[in-house]
Design goal:
The complex is a heterodimer of chains A (about 110) and B (about 140). Chain A contains 6 helices and no strands. Chain A is mainly α. The two termini of chain A are about 25 Å apart. Chain B is mainly alpha-helical and about 140 residues long. Classes of the chains: A mainly alpha (about 110), B mainly alpha (about 140). Chains A and B meet through helix 2, helix 3 and helix 4 of A and helix 2 of B. Chain A: InterPro entries: NDUFA8. Chain A: One of its GO terms (cellular component) is mitochondrion. Chain A: One of its GO terms (biological process) is mitochondrial electron transport, NADH to ubiquinone.
């Protein structure tokens, strides 16, 4: 995939980028996600949960930028593979291993 | 020539006394031909066959179970990924929605500003819960 990186060098949160980094998002932005979901459960009105939403977006976009800077090539390969195979995890095991070795989950 | 002239026997009174010309068995007869059934009673017993079939079936079902475990793990991975990215997507959609909703409320206020009974910019159901707008007006390019 030619450009999942925007003009400023940050990764654009397309579906393949998000699915590729989903495990990292799940572990590192867990608290923000849970807070947002709790707010939504209490009141599904979008205007009431804008702050939580902004926290989530900030966390995820920052995380994407961070990972992209740390392991650029592995992330590019993995995102490219995900884009080619429409987010099928099973088809990209090799790239996934290389990506998780370079940028370990925590 | 007629048959009588070829197969003549001296002293023959009529054609009925001609020597026979038949196609018959060779001297001593033919060799004996076996036509009796000989189905042997050897091989696996009924219990052995049943156990083999039952064994094959159970091994197959076990493999099915293992395969299902693998497939469930793959599905779980996909669902976990979706659960992880759901809040980002919802947050972005919320931002977009709030912007569009504010524009829509302003439009509604401007359109209805001369109507006397039109109280607020927003009037929906009275249950107190948030109900997403159902008019389809906010995403005209989608609907």
């Amino acid at each position: 995939m030619s450009s999942h990186v925007g003009p400023s060098g940050e990764p654009v949160p397309t579906s393949s980028v998000l699915m590729a980094s989903s495990k990292h998002i799940g572990s590192r932005c867990h608290s923000e996600n849970v807070a947002f979901l709790k707010c939504k459960k209490k009141d599904p009105n979008p205007e009431k949960c804008l702050d939580n939403g902004r926290e989530v977006t900030r966390c995820v976009l920052g995380l994407l930028k961070d990972i992209h800077q740390k392991c650029t090539k592995q992330m590019d390969d993995y995102v490219g593979c995900m884009y080619y195979y429409t987010n099928e995890f099973d088809m990209c095991r090799k790239e996934q291993e290389a990506f998780e070795k370079a940028c370990p989950l925590e | 020539m007629t048959e009588a002239m070829i197969r003549k026997k001296p002293g023959m009174a009529s054609v009925k006394d001609m020597p026979l010309l038949q196609d018959g068995p060779p001297p001593g007869g033919f060799a004996p031909v076996r036509y009796a059934r000989r189905i042997p009673n050897t091989g696996p017993s009924a219990m052995a066959i049943f156990l083999a079939a039952f064994g094959a079936f159970s091994w197959g079902m076990y493999q099915v179970g293992q395969g299902n475990k693998v497939r469930r793990a793959l599905k779980e991975e996909k669902y976990a990924a979706r659960r992880a990215i759901l809040p980002v997507l919802q947050a972005e959609e919320d931002e977009r929605f709030v912007k569009e909703w504010k524009k829509y409320l302003e439009y509604e206020a401007e359109v209805m500003k001369d109507v006397p009974g039109w109280k607020v910019g927003e009037n929906v159901y009275h249950s107190g819960r948030w109900v997403p707008p159902a008019s389809g007006e906010l995403r005209p390019e989608v609907w």
